[in-house]
Amino acid sequence: MSTLEHDPAPVGEPAEEKAPSRLAPIGRFVVSLLRMPTGLFGVLVMLGFVVLALSAPLFIHPSDLSVTQADGPLLAGPRSGYPLGTDPAGRSVLLLVIWGSRTSLAIGVMATLLTMVLGAGIGLMAGHYQGRVGRLLMHVTDWFIALPSLPLAIALAAVLGQGATSITIAIGVTSWTGTARLVRAQTLAVEARPFIERARALGATDTQLITRQVLPNVMPLILVSSTLTVASAILSEATLTFLGLGDPTSVSWGSLLNNAFMQGAVTAGAWWYLIPPGIAILVIVLGFTLVGRAVEHVLNARVQPR
Amino acid sequence: MSVGVPLEAPTVSGPEEGPERSDFPVYLARKVGAAVVSFVMLLVVGFIIFSLMPSDPVSALTRGRPTSDAQMNQLRHDLGLDQPLWERFLTFVGHTLTGNLGYSYEYHQPVSTLIADRLWPTLLLMGSSTLISIWLGMWLGIRAGWHPGSLLDRSASAVSLALWSVPTFWLGLILLVVFGSGSVGGIPAIFPAGGMQTHGTAGGLAPSHVLDVAWHLVLPCVTLVAVIFAQYVTIMRSSIIDERGNPYLLTARAKGLRDEVVRRRHAVPNALLPSVTVIFLQIGGMIGGAITVEVVYSWPGLGYLTFTALRIPDLQLLEGTFIVFSAAVIVCNLIADLLYRALDPRVRRQ
Amino acid sequence: MTETAVRRPELGPGEPLLDVRGLTVTYRSGRDPVYAARGVDVTLAPGETLGMAGESGSGKTTVAMSLLRLLPVDADVTGEIRFRGEDLLSVNWARMRAVRWAEASVVFQGAMSALNPVKTVGDQIAEPILLHEKVGEKAARERARALLDSVGVPSRRVTSYPHELSGGQRQRVMMAMALACGPDLLIADEPTTALDVIVQAQILTLLTDLVKERGISLIMISHDLSVLASTCDRIAVMYAGRLVETGPSRVVITHPLHPYARALAGAFPTLGDPASRRAPGGLPGDPPDLREKIEGCPFAPRCPEVEDRCRTGVVPLVEVVGAPDREAACIHVPGYDAAVARG
After folding, report:
1. Which residue in B3, B44, B13 sits closest to B224, CA to CA?
2. Measured CA angle at B235 (ends B230, A282), to 5 deg
3. Of A234, B35, B241, C78, whose CB neighbour count within 10 A is largest?
4. Which residues of B fall within a CB distance of 8 Å from A278?
5. What is the rounded distance in angstroms from the CA atom of residue B323 to the CA atom of residue B115?
6. Chains with 3 or more CB pairs closer than 8 angstroms to C?
7. Yes or no, beta carbons of A239 and B292 under 8 Å apart
8. Are the C-beta atoms of residues C34 and C26 closer than 8 Å to each other?
């Protein structure tokens, strides 16, 4: 995935212990990742969907997506010209699913960004400020973990109003805890190392310590966490949209299923309308999950050489 | 948030290790105290979300209904919206603790009544799904963990991963369309297309009623089990894998016991210990799945209630279900903590 | 003391209880095979006590565990292990399980982790009794109490959990458990590690008394020669998976022939310094990597008396001239050249 191939140097100067060149390890990392069958599959899937989503406007016209202008047979099974059949308004399900990837991916990524910022931010602070602030943050995190996520997300999205933004916020607010815990643990581990003591003795401020010393060491972890988070964010988006909390005008996998459900595709037995969006979700979630695990595997293998 | 459940075995806030094993009453007091604090925080968050964030609940309530300004002001007064913030919070806390969760304008009933009515179907669904998932998860997890890397183990992992990667509701939709609609590939509608019982059947504990409900329960239960059993497989599997390395198993083998007996009599009881508590901790994660399953199958429980509350949105009702769900999780976590303490002989005896 | 219902063939006069020949254990889990034991021969008469000495990784535990086929599945075991004339390496698993504990049992090291933490001590002692003999639960429970008594643990402790007992008591429980079915052979793997010196002495005395009383053969494994010297009739010293010296314990300790045995014997443990008990005093270097097939004597890199011919071919264990009950695998052993020439 593009982020991995062009991983920029960490913010600020590299910590004293780091090797000066950062490109060779990245190259090796990518190669080891691609050597794992799960890693390879995951990366291909991710790339494939991103390419599809970005290039969709090139071959999908607004008329294909418009309820009024679509001219296919209504809720018809797969046939020539409509490999995945049509929806109750006559639109091609295949094109809808491809177009839906744009919203689903977009929300997934945005929600993940929010989750990472929140989670990493809180985790870093909880790990760095170990006194009352740290403990308080820890308790808040633990409490949040206990909260059932869907009711909270529903509550937030309902109160914030229908739409992509509220869904994104709802997902972000309910997913940050996992990252926060990981980052906190890693921060504690990093700060226990002697070079932190040295930096502190040399008068480094808290901000400097965090951004220059801790953050680069925590980044790989955040990377792994983010791929796994995108997977669960896409699942969450689908669920929240299915429940009716999404933007009614935009097409996403969740909204396709919501439409199908509300318009009686179930009783009509319109399996071609119901199956593809779910398969799309399955494949992309698998893809991201496998990449996340493969990345974790490769990173661990480097840290603990056999 | 994962509406399904994550696949790493969660960590338990286990018993205190170490020489000083505190008295049980002290432990109990601490844990109950923590639960109370959690509950208070829950009320604060609930208040923030439902009373502070919405711009004007009254206009939301009266949307679509012609209301004069005077009526709206009266409504505001009735709802206590014109009081200072802290007073509103205290009123809210007072009401919640006495069971008054507000009034649903959509259903024209008190929220607590609605919740009480819908509680049993949700308990039935979640309870049966949990029991089946535990049994299935344990059966698979123990065997997968005892022979890690075996075909069984790898297949179980693959299936778990696949099931986690699909939205629960989609699985429900597929099952419903295949088995409940009668319109797919000639498969007859073996199971009902939704609801909890057929209209007109006798109620209560009449066998025909029980069977009817059970028949309606099959698909929702299967859907929920499919998604959550993977979690139990993972828990049992990692517990067993952790136990496998333990020397006392070699002792058992040296005594001449068969492999299955060593697993069953020695490894499993030890592995079960952390698993029991984690089961309670999982219940929180299951709630999301239960909500979507109820929606798909029109199962008249708290989840379906939440869904219908989204339509207006009926904020009082939403708030009520939110608090009930979250409070239930707090209680389950408390039970998990107490249960571990009660079961582990290392901690139990003084 | 009650006895078991298992009928065992009587041993002929002079017939050893245990006769191990050419025992070779190779672990094949990783990329490289690990040669943990190579061509080990051990004989044990009924009632005899044998100590196996060596550093960690010398193969002593491997050999001991292989006797009852308790090694992990990736261990490749070849050779012969004749127990009462029966080759345990070629019997089926049902027979192996029947032999385990009833005819030969183990006292494992680290009693805290070798005992199941969630079962009572009584249950764990009774378990093999219930498995191997046709007795009821009450009778088994009674035997467990009696066994606890015989090892010096108050019999009311039969309902205690392992964590409720002290380290010394746990080790006694392990012994009681090992004696439960009246075995003919007891294998004690580092029975006194992690115990303090006083308790250690008590445990050793108890062990020797028990085996002597019941005529049980004992194989004791330890890295501590002094422990073995006081409890065993014979000692076998292992290095890098091979036997390097055997003989009556008193003689091996006072006049060791193999340079490694000499180093071991010379290392009197310093009180309070656990490291000195493990590494022979002042011996430079490390034990060889068992993944490599070693040419010549494995001790050559560290031996103070090494010669060129030590590094090639094989340096076999030979009987010492003038001391037929002693063997050593060193070119400096009197009669070595003649023995090798004889083949």
Report:
1. B3
2. 25
3. A234
4. 166-167, 170-171, 173-174
5. 11
6. B
7. yes
8. yes
- Which residue in chain C is spatially nearest to B266 when comparing CA positions? C116
Domains of chain A, each with CATH number or no CATH:
35-51+89-296 (1.10.3720.10)
Closest-approach residue (CA) in chain B for C174: B251
In tens digits, what is the pLDDT along chain C, a chain of 343 residues? Answer: 333 334 456 677 778 889 999 999 998 877 888 888 888 998 998 889 999 998 887 888 899 999 999 998 888 899 999 998 889 999 999 999 999 999 999 998 887 889 998 889 999 999 999 999 989 999 999 999 999 999 989 988 899 899 889 888 999 999 999 999 989 999 999 888 778 888 888 888 888 898 888 889 999 998 888 888 888 999 999 988 889 999 998 888 888 888 888 888 775 554 455 655 555 555 677 778 888 777 888 888 888 888 888 888 788 888 887 787 888 888 888 878 877 777 6
Indicate whether this model's pTM tops 0.90: no
Q: Is the dihedral of CA C321, C322, C327, C331 positive or negative?
A: negative
d(CA A18, CA A26) in angstroms, rounded, equals: 13
Place of tokens 């123990």: B142
What is the DSSP pairing of strand C104-107 with strand C185-189? parallel
Q: Can you give the three-state secondary structure of chain A, one letter per residue? A: CHHHHCCCCCCCCCCCCCCCCCHHHHHHHHHHHHHCHHHHHHHHHHHHHHHHHHHHHHHCCHHHHCCCCCCCCCCCCCECCECCCECCCCCEHHHHHHHHHHHHHHHHHHHHHHHHHHHHHHHHHHHHCCCHHHHHHHHHHHHHHHCCHHHHHHHHHHHHCCCHHHHHHHHHHHHHHHHHHHHHHHHHHHHCCHHHHHHHHCCCCHHHHHHHHHHHHHHHHHHHHHHHHHHHHHHHHHHHHHCCCCCCCCCCHHHHHHHHHHCCCCCCCCHHHHHHHHHHHHHHHHHHHHHHHHHHHHHHHHHCCC
**Chain-chain contact of A147 with B173 (C-beta, under 8 angstroms):** no
Flag whether residue C6 sits within 8 Å of chain B, measured between CB atoms: no
Chain A: partners with 3+ C-beta pairs within 8 Å: B
ipTM of the complex: 0.83
- pLDDT tens, position by position, B243-277: 888 889 999 999 999 999 998 899 888 888 777 77
> CB neighbours of A224 closer than 8 A, spacing ≥ 6?
A292, A295, A296, A299
Total number of residues shown for chain A? 306
